[in-house]
Structure formats: structure tokens, C-alpha cells
Design a protein that fits this description.
By secondary structure, the chain is an alpha/beta fold. It is built from twelve helices and ten strands. A hairpin with a 4-residue loop joins strand 7 and strand 8.
């Protein structure tokens, strides 16, 4: 069972499972929180294999892509049958699918339900499935606490948990280790089993496996730090792992004048950084020698994003050999938000995907303008 935070990423993961592993709709269920996003994803697949969309609040109209087996578990029929005798196929599919890829909200009811019986189905699912939580760094503080409770319950039910992330912090990993160990302690006591738990760390180079008895937090910290140290050694070895992109922290000196000058100085520093990164990372078109690069400037709020876009578009400080093209993506206030997000991110994904074209085709596709662009 794979739980993710983004709905379109969940759909794309389902596509990968079908294509690369060969799962069909009798083996794999994909559940998200929006019928509109699912329909748009299928429509996009007919025109283009790509698309991306950020998650928004999840409603009750959850779309599921899975074939229900003919032989149903009639003993559980009351879980998905309402008082009028109508069957909710969404609830059936949550429990039946051998492999489930879903947004994590479908499972959170197992620990976050305050009243009623909404916790029963996700709890039954956790009872029979190991849990993989992907891109856990996408969640905020409140979500991370709730995920800790979900990990604790999964351990109490005797199942395994895998956290998939390239940027999980040692403190977060240790917190989830403690949550899992506390739940496993109860499971082991109920089954009269050994309370020790096994942990494993994986990356593209190696793996590390260790077993920890109860209250062995110092041993866990040592093993975790050893894995991190080995990982850092690999990343810092420029011979084995040469850097492809080099980032930098930009210090912006605060001017003494008013607010407008502060904003101008801030935007001017961003423009200078864009030019430096273009010089550093642009790729040369093999046909005409033009240098092309794509970059992202992320702003936390819409008004400064729009102001920066206007500043860069109207600036006269661009070098003579640089021709910039800008797309400001501000979709949080769009009407029909799912549709708008899907349209914008589909176009962006098509332009930036490196698997869609060969190297030569990519260069040809980006060299149609008279000047090089950033």
C-alpha cells in the first residue's frame, strides 16, 4: 500500500506500476480525492503521457480505478452498504485491491476519526498491508504528527512501514522510529513475540540493515548517522558523483531607502542570479550553438510573484545575448482549480520532460527562436 500527498503523482504512480511492473486493474487500485483530476489525467494520457498537479483539499467524490472481484466478502457488507441498501463501491475497492496507491487522506481516518465508524475500513486495510509513505517531506508540521499516529497504528497491527524521501531529517526519522517501536511493543506483547524491530536504509548505492531491542535509541542513532556519513561521502566524491548542477545562497543587502527600493534590490539580485545560473548550466544546441537553459524561481505568495514577473519582463538590464521567456504559474486563485492546474502543469511537464524526446530532438525543439533563451 503506497500513500502519497499529491493526487496527480498518485495517478502517475499507478501508470508506472501498470507499465513497469505489469499490474492490471484486478491487482492495482488507484484512489485520489477528485473525480475531475482523474478524468483530466485520462484525457491527458490520450494527448500526452505527462502531467502534474498539486494537491488541494480532498472532497468526498473520490475516484478509484480498480475492478471489483466477483466474489465479495459478504460478511463485511455492512461496511459499504447504507441504510437504503445501496453499495458504495469506493469502500469495497479500498479493501479488496491487492496493491493500493492512494492519497494519504484515505488512510488518516484510521487514527483521526473522532466519532462514527469511518476508522473501520482503513484500519482493516492496514491490518493486512505494509505501508509505504512516499515524499514525506511534502507534508507540514500538523500532517507529520498525524502521520506519526498512523505509523504507530500500523506497527500495533504488526505490519511494516517504509518511508521514501531524499530529504528526511534525522529528527523526523528518529521520531517515526520511536512511534513505530511503541506500536510494535504492544503487538509483540499481544503475540508473545520478541519486541526487537528491524530497520533498513536504502539508497542507489548500498543498504544497511540492523535490529534494535527496546529502548536502544542510541544504537539506532549510531546506525542512522553511519548511513548518513556514508551517503555524504559518496555525494562529496566528485570523481564518482560529479555535480550536474551547483546551487548557491544569495545574500541580499538591505538598502536604506523605502519599501520600493527594497523590492527592487531583491528582484535585481534574483535577476543577477538567473543570469549566473544560465551562464553556468546552459546547454549548447548542437545545430546552431545557441545556449539554452530552464530555471525556476519559487515565490511563496502570489503578489510578489506577479511583481517579480513584471520586473523581469520589463527589465533593461538583460545582457545582449540573453533572451528570456517567462511563465508565471499562480493557480491557487484559478476558477475551476483542478482544470486550471492540470492545464498549466501538463504544458510545463511536456516542455521539461527528458524521457519524451531524444537528446537531438530536445535541442531541435528548443532552438526555434532567433536568440538563446533562459
Amino acid at each position: 500500500m503506497l500513500a502519497l500527498g499529491l493526487r496527480t503523482l498518485t495517478l502517475q504512480t499507478g501508470d508506472e506500476y501498470r507499465e513497469r511492473i505489469g499490474l492490471d486493474n484486478g491487482e492495482l487500485a488507484v484512489m485520489i480525492g477528485s473525480q475531475a483530476v482523474s478524468d483530466l489525467h485520462r484525457q491527458t494520457q490520450e494527448d500526452s503521457p505527462l502531467g502534474s498537479e498539486s494537491a488541494v483539499s480532498v472532497g468526498e467524490n473520490n475516484d478509484i480505478d480498480f475492478d471489483i472481484p466477483e466474489q465479495a466478502l459478504s460478511v463485511l457488507g455492512t461496511l459499504w452498504t447504507n441504510r437504503a441498501g445501496q453499495v458504495d463501491s469506493r469502500k469495497q475497492k479500498l479493501l479488496y485491491a491487492p496493491v493500493l496507491a492512494c492519497t494519504i487522506d484515505h488512510l488518516m481516518a484510521a487514527t483521526e476519526t473522532a466519532r462514527g465508524g469511518r476508522h473501520i475500513l482503513p484500519s482493516l486495510r492496514l491490518l493486512s498491508s505494509d505501508l509505504v509513505i512516499d515524499e514525506i517531506d511534502d507534508f507540514d508540521g500538523d500532517d507529520l504528527v498525524a502521520i506519526g499516529r498512523l505509523i504507530n497504528l500500523t506497527a500495533m497491527l504488526g505490519c511494516k512501514v517504509m518511508i521514501s524521501s531524499a530529504t528526511i531529517t534525522p529528527a523526523l526519522a528518529e521520531g517515526y522510529f520511536n512511534a513505530y517501536q511503541a506500536g510494535w511493543r504492544l503487538f509483540a506483547a499481544a503475540r508473545e513475540a520478541k519486541p526487537a524491530i528491524g530497520c533498513a536504509w536504502f539508497d542507489e548505492n548500498d543498504n544497511r540493515v540492523a535490529a534494535f531491542p527496546l529502548d536502544a535509541i542510541e544504537t539506532y542513532r549510531a546506525e542512522h548517522q553511519a548511513f548518513i556519513a556514508k551517503r555524504c561521502t559518496f555525494l562529496q566524491n566528485t570523481k564518482l558523483n560529479p555535480p550536474r548542477r551547483i546551487g548557491e545562497l544569495i545574500e541580499v543587502a538591505k538598502p536604506e531607502a523605502g519599501a520600493n527600493d527594497i523590492e527592487t534590490a531583491y528582484f535585481s539580485n534574483i535577476q543577477a542570479a538567473v543570469i549566473r545560473q544560465h551562464r553556468r548550466h546552459a546547454s549548447a544546441d548542437p545545430h546552431n550553438g545557441k545556449r539554452v537553459s530552464f530555471g525556476v524561481v519559487r515565490m511563496a505568495n502570489i503578489p510578489p510573484c506577479i511583481a517579480l514577473t513584471r520586473y523581469l519582463a520589463h527589465s533593461t538590464d538583460w545582457p545582449a545575448d540573453v533572451d528570456i521567456r517567462i511563465m508565471a504559474t499562480t493557480v491557487s486563485k484559478c476558477c475551476c482549480c483542478d482544470t486550471a492546474r492540470k492545464s498549466i502543469w501538463t504544458k510545463s511537464s511536456n516542455a521539461l520532460n527528458r524521457q519524451r524526446f531524444t537528446k537531438t530532438q530536445r535541442y531541435v525543439g528548443m532552438s526555434t527562436r532567433a536568440k538563446p533563451k533562459i
